């Protein structure tokens, strides 16, 4: 069997030697941090215009992650490209000839890319949090307050998990274009819209992004959002199940189909 | 040593590779020949465990590909020149492959030097010409210094200098005792490089023979004669018991006689000759006849092929369709 550390090293070389890694991860960081800080500043300035319910459930931690909605799209691109370019470039045949054990190959790739996405995700969420709290001034919170650290760490986990989910989907679809064409509109539009439609939202709240983002809330039903039948960790658990399903699906496709 | 046993691949109802069994032996260049679409690439992909066979097995030194520890050290393959990430430099494309099989990075510089790409090692491979891409693919095949090397249409896209280079490289690698398996759809290319030949058509094995035997069996040699005393020459040949076939332009072709015999014969009978030459049907023709046969066989497979040879069948059909050419139609 192929040596796992050797394959991990190889996958790390693959990731660090393409420019798409740098620009997708930098985009994820910049977009999330800048948008989070800007919205925090805006909400701070217009706090009095918020509805009474929103003021009552004002969650300064959750507000600092407002940029995640857009920033996660860069994470989706990162995850899709890590797996998808193997197929679009034809590299997959060279890669599998070198590492014919499908499980070793795919899980090493996802481990390396996943860990990198989690590290960048955590960095993003901490910077986002502290910068946004600075913008919120007196209405801000403290990292030492109840559940705040959980939410900030959770925000980082969320970013990483979105990337890993995308890797699984790309492994299933074996195409960058197709994967992006499905995931981008799904996370940016479909999921957001369905979450606002009565009836549909009972289903939409079990989508990976809707369930997973619960971890970033400190105040229950923050910003007057609908109450969910699961807690912060329950929501993240649902997201993890989605991620496991996508990765398993991707593995089965790789194992059974011709390269 | 590569062994194939009953290797079969079906895509839906289409059989791409049909019960292939053969061995690829070390120390020689084995040519893998077949027209486009014969199943060469599919067979090679199955040999590398990239495609799953419908049935049958491939063994590399007695093992399944998937059970090889660090397979690049056993077998190196050039399948598709573009099977690299274009956004990565030539060096990094090779480095990640080397690392996965615990091959030292110094070997990457070595193989880049061997294929003549050292100068562009840090350049992104998407800017490479087809010929450079081919060289990069060959570099990746050589990376693990493997005993077995497999090249799918390696001369595609190479300039004459490149073609010359790859031919010599394959011969040099074989002379070191390695197993070389190379596919092509050009018989002329194979005749120059291969020692052994495996021919497939429609996924079926048509020939598994040494190059020398293939040439012996398949290239008809004959003597070509031209004379202003055509009639006399023909009579003389007939008297002496030679079978002369008359072709266009007053040329006679004689099988089974040496030029010496025929020249002396003509001199004895004082026949003037304008041409006396030894001829050989090209291997390309022999190969085309061999594979065309397999195509014909499939087209007529609903009939009994032994009862009616396809060529006769076609002629018969033409006559039938021509009005007036058949006696029964006149009545």
Spell out the blueprint of helices and strands.
The complex is a heterodimer of chains A (259) and B (331).
Chain A lengths: L3 H13 L2 H27 L6 H5 L3 H5 L3 H22 L1 H8 L3 H35 L11 H26 L2 H19 L6 H4 L3 H5 L19 H25 L3
Chain B lengths: L1 E10 L2 E11 L4 E5 L6 H8 L7 E6 L14 E4 L11 H11 L5 H9 L15 H13 L5 E5 L7 H16 L3 E6 L2 H7 L2 E6 L2 E7 H8 L2 E6 L3 H10 L4 E4 L3 E5 L3 H10 L6 E6 L2 H17 L10 H12 L5 H4 L1
Parallel strand pairs in B: 3-7, 3-8, 5-6, 6-7
Antiparallel strand pairs in B: 1-2, 1-4, 8-9, 10-12, 10-13, 11-12
Helix pairs in contact in B: 2-3, 3-4
Report on the structure:
The complex is a heterodimer of chains A (259) and B (331). With 259 residues, chain A is mostly helical. Chain A contains twelve helices and no strands. Chain B is α/β, with parallel strands linked by helices and 331 residues long. Chain B has three domains: 216 residues, Rossmann fold, CATH 3.40.50.300; 58 residues, Alpha-Beta Plaits (2-Layer Sandwich), CATH 3.30.70; 42 residues, no CATH class. In chain B, strands 5-6-7-3-8-9 form a six-stranded mixed sheet, sandwiched between helices. In chain B, a hairpin with a 2-residue loop joins strand 1 and strand 2. In chain B, helix 2 crosses helix 3 and helix 3 packs across helix 4. Chain B is elongated. Chain B starts with a strand and ends with a helix. At the A-B interface, helix 1, helix 5 and helix 6 of A face helix 2 of B. Chain B: Keywords: ATP-binding, Nucleotide-binding, Transport. Chain B: InterPro entries: AAA+_ATPase, ABC_transporter-like_ATP-bd, P-loop_NTPase. Chain B: This is Efflux ABC transporter, ATP-binding protein.
